[in-house]
Amino acid sequence: MIVSKSIFVLINGLASGMAFFLVAAGLTWVFGILKILNMAHGAFFMIGAYLAFSIVGSNPESMWSFLGAGLVAGLVVGVLGYLTDKIVLTRLRTVDYHYVLIATFGLMLFCEGVAKWIWGIDYFSVMPPPQVDQALKIGSSYVSGYTLFVIAAGLVVFAVIDTIMHRLWVGKIMRAVANDPWMAGTLGVNVPAILTISVIASFALAGFAGGLLLPNQTLSINVGSSFLLYSFLAVVIGGLGNIRGTFVACIILGVVESANATFMANFGGIAVYIVLAVFLVWKPNGLFPAQGST
Amino acid sequence: MVSMTDTQGSVIERTPMMSRRVVGFLMVLVFGALALAPDLVNPGLLFLIGLTLIQAVFALSWNLLFGYTGLASFGHAGFFAIGAYFTGAMLRYTVPIPFLGMLVIAAGLGALVACLIGLVALRRLAGIFLAVLTVALTEVLGRLISYSPALGEHDGLGNIPRPKIGLVLWDLDLTSSRAYFLFLLCACSLITAALWWLVHSRTGRVFQAIRQDADRAAFLGINVARYRLLSFMISGGVAAMAGGLFAPWTRIVTLDEVNWLASTQPILNTLLGGVGSFWGPVVGAVAFTLINYWTRTFVGLSEIVIGGTLVLVIIAAPTGIIGLLHTIRNWVFQRTAGKGGTHERLP
Question: Least CB-CB distance to A229: which of B10, B135, B308?
Fold first, then answer.
């Protein structure tokens, strides 16, 4: 009994961890390179979800239309990211970080207001595409196919980002800019372009995640806020701006949250904060601290 | 003109806009007008004015932390909620503690929680840590309250009676809106006066020194961590007291007081009014109430206006309404000294 329950907890925890990671990846990317903690990230995730919903509706016909809708949402939100960068973020590059936090907070409210205005305040629900809509039996417990789909999606996105960041020349340049923008500039790197590309990538990722995670929960204006909160926790636990740390932290948070919900259902959602406090005291710079920080 | 070139880099010039005598005269005028408000305006508007007073104190508590000590809390609603739920529950279940005592205990509770958070985060007060921790505090509180039947779970704590205050010679009955409003006005004025005194005292100077340059302050022998903790505790305590005054005024406290949006309220009021001025948060609270009042009937519009204003203020007018007034005054009188529109920029 306890074994099957544990497997259940583990798989569900992995799935929610991967869901957090899909959102946290873009957040930590922008944080690593621009040093901006983008509070509006969850709002753009929400916009991506609404866009994908507008394309596929409540019952996606096939896996391809579902993925396609996610990609289109990602593209559109990426364009929004470009505009946001040009209109707002470039003006915040030299401003004290407190004000940047507050400005992105304002951006979040703005986006929520616009989304309310366009899509209304009703709740929608979306079914997973038919290919992953059946339950699978693992041991003695049942797991939905969509859960495994989310885990796979998280792993793929992590693999892609990690390859870009640690194996390709683009990633090297990005890490150089993150480390020392001035020095990278003198070596001939087009720093503003790298910053803009990072913002676009981060936003596109948020929009894509919005599409992929549509069937994960009901769709409402607040859909981004809980994901954003967990992403913050993951980014802090993982080491600010570190993609591998964020990945590990997301898995920890997901499993803890799932264990909390299964074994202590009366106090759901509390355990992650205890974990956060423990990590802040034990590893104040995160699991994978950035180079140069003490 | 002062120009700092350290890494913290934020320079807030505090050139007073008007002489203290003029400000004092204005204060007396505003106080007098507000004291007459219960007899002049309708109950709905009086309710809004009362809320604005509370929001002004709440915003002042946030600005003590941000504008004077250089720390940003993104979960200040947590402290507010501690006070609001505490006095709300005490009054609702008629616990025999005098109301003034309740307010003091509420402030103490707020300060205590601030102290605990501070001990975790203030060691390395990189602003992001404090930001995330304070947000987490508010979320945890919201969850705990939603699991607690005594505090009304998701429905909120309603039917909160207004208190009676037993003074030495006679009892002060605050049951009527009029009486409680006058009490609220006096309480908010007293708290504001105390904060004004604090930021102009030696301790306030130390706070400002830390905000401008924590390293230099440490060189001068200031215990930076301790003063940051002190500022955080006072700020949390005042926020909790504002919450304590809030519960009997609205007579219901719900989870709406314990979320992100509620935490933005003091931030917004402060930035709108102006970080660089003591009275900025108060001006901002008034301006905000007006904006909200005019946009209340359109779905989503208030978020668009509030969010847009916030972004616009930071990009275009980082010194808020008071800074704008400064700039206009300087422009009218062609003064060059004491510019109000200084941007807070990194070098």
Answer: B135
